[in-house]
Design brief:
This protein is α+β, with helices and mostly antiparallel strands. The chain has a single domain (12-150), classed as Hotdog Thioesterase (Thiol Ester Dehydrase, Chain A, Roll), CATH 3.10.129.10. It is 21% helix and 28% strand. A 5-stranded antiparallel beta sheet has the order 1-3-4-5-2, covered by helices on one side. It is elongated, with a radius of gyration of 18 Å. The two termini are 20 Å apart.
């Protein structure tokens, strides 16, 4: 991973990564976050949509809540966007904020392009404002948002 320095960043710079989260990736994520634990499916408010309703694991579970196919948990999409920003910034960069909006579901095996666009810089603080988004192979942007990053300066 390349270290990015504030002086080398220009408004309009872009960066992208390709990702294709598989069903196995989702299962691993669920097991690591505890969403796949027995009992995690219960909701105290009686509404549908608890973690164990199947929408993340199977076509049948997704269909039971009105979805065309199994989807990624929102926190998994958020984690992918967070990694995009930190990979862009490098180990010396610091993500100060990340705000994302979930516009539509992200399905298992969607071919995703995650992109960063530099929209502004704040010279006094070596901060960079970013637009970020996730685009699938259908041209949809199911997740998009903004980030604020502080970058190191060259000595």
């Amino acid at each position: 991973m390349e270290q990015r320095y504030f002086e080398a960043v220009d408004i309009g710079d872009e960066y992208e990564q390709e990702r294709t989260p598989t069903s196995e990736d989702v299962q691993t994520f669920l097991s690591l976050t505890g969403l796949g634990r027995p009992g995690s499916e219960a909701r105290s408010d009686g509404r549908r949509g608890g973690p164990g309703d199947g929408r993340f694991e199977s076509a049948e579970g997704a269909a039971s809540v009105g979805l065309a196919a199994p989807i990624l948990p929102g926190n998994m999409s958020f984690a992918m966007m967070s990694r995009l920003v930190t990979d862009w910034a490098g180990v010396g960069g610091h993500m100060l904020s990340l705000d994302v909006s979930f516009r539509r579901p992200v399905h298992h095996n969607d071919v995703l392009t995650l992109q960063v666009l530099v929209t502004d810089t704040v010279d006094d603080d070596a901060q960079v404002k970013l637009d970020i988004y996730m685009e699938n192979e259908r041209g949809e942007r199911p997740v998009q948002g903004t980030a604020l990053v502080e970058l190191p300066r060259r000595e």
